[in-house]
Design goal:
Elements (H helix, E strand, L loop, with lengths): L1 E10 L24 H11 L5 E2 L6 E12 L2 E11 L3 E4 L6 E4 L7 E8 L7 E7 L6 H10 L2 H6 L4 E5 L3 H10 L4 E7 L18 E6 L9 H5 L9 E2 L8 E7 L2 E7 L6 E5 L6 E2 L2 E2 L1 H18 L1
Antiparallel strand pairs: 1-8, 1-9, 1-15, 2-3, 3-4, 4-7, 5-6, 7-8, 10-11, 10-12, 13-14, 14-15, 16-17
């Protein structure tokens, strides 16, 4: 299965914080005089000549940018990456022929990317291709942020990469998702701990874990985190709180199917041969590129 994961990019500078900009967000086309589009282009071209080793002692990774296309404020292309360090075998499932794989050999995944960095905006869009076996966001974050490429260029700042989805998709998710587990953090009503409450000093708060009965649920996400919920400020979402939810939305005459994992974790649009032209089950570049640029434009309009 192919999908596109959606993220919002931003940069916060403590020196830029003020009453009208409490988060200290910078315009991404002018980060201390630098354009994020140019920095991304530079980073991509650092890796387009050969395969680069971007791993560490624990997890060995290799990266190669095989194609970069610049179209106005869009950057898109193909990235190849894989893991190595463990010997094994590669088997052709049709011929049953086996090929030895040494610890220096890496399986290579071929994935699409798209960045949309409009001028004079404090948020922009990153779209990463994902298959059943491989995803690109973590590799990008590791190489662009964790290796200090962006930090060194920007004078100590970090590019923030947060999951993004359309508001109507999120609202649908809040209404339909069944909750399995949640935390009430810093809950101020100490009576929940019974007699122990009398022994707690003034100002104490309580963190409570609530588990649903086996095979059951404890309400909808809207009940706990909706704008009218009295618990909104106290609730923390856990990675195993709820299952994925698939939402179908119609935007400007085009239907898309979005899968939301836990809020704040991942939002992805499923792509099929009805959306993107395929060759041997894999998206053709021009087709997925057109689709992704339209999606990025819609996401910017929706922010």
């Amino acid at each position: 299965m192919h999908s596109i994961t959606m993220y919002s990019l931003s940069v916060s500078d403590p020196a830029a914080k003020c009453p009208t900009n409490k988060a200290g967000l910078l315009e991404l086309s002018n980060i201390k005089g630098l354009d994020l589009l140019s920095l991304l282009n530079e980073w991509l071209n650092l890796h387009n000549k050969d395969y680069s080793d971007i791993g560490d002692d624990e997890e060995k990774k290799v990266l190669h940018v095989s194609r970069v296309e610049e179209d106005g404020r869009f950057l898109s292309g193909w990235v190849e990456y894989g893991y190595y360090g463990i010997p094994g075998k590669i088997v052709n499932v049709k011929t049953k022929k086996k090929t030895r794989k040494s610890k220096e050999d890496s399986d290579i995944n071929h994935l699409y990317f798209c960045f949309y960095i409009p001028e004079n905006k404090k948020n922009s869009i990153a779209l990463f291709h994902k298959t059943n076996q491989a995803a690109l966001k973590t590799i990008f974050d590791l190489s662009f942020n964790s290796t200090n490429f962006f930090k060194d260029k920007s004078g100590g700042l970090k590019l923030r990469i947060k999951p993004l989805c359309k508001k109507d998709v999120l609202n649908d998710w809040m209404e339909k998702t069944q909750v399995k587990k949640l935390y009430l953090e810093r809950y101020k009503d100490k009576s929940i701990v019974g007699d122990l409450a009398d022994k707690l000093p003034i100002g104490s708060t309580v963190t409570v874990t609530i588990n649903a009965p086996r095979g059951g649920f404890i309400g909808k996400m809207q009940d706990w985190m909706g704008k009218d919920s009295e618990f909104t400020e106290d609730v923390t979402l856990l990675s195993d709180m709820c299952g994925d939810l698939t939402t179908k939305v119609d935007y400007k005459g085009r239907k898309s199917k979005t899968v939301l994992s836990n809020k704040g974790t991942e939002s992805r649009v499923i792509i099929t041969s009805s959306d993107v032209e395929m060759h041997e089950g894999f998206p053709k570049f021009n087709s997925i590129d057109t689709y992704a640029k339209q999606l990025a434009t819609e996401l910017m309009e929706n922010q």
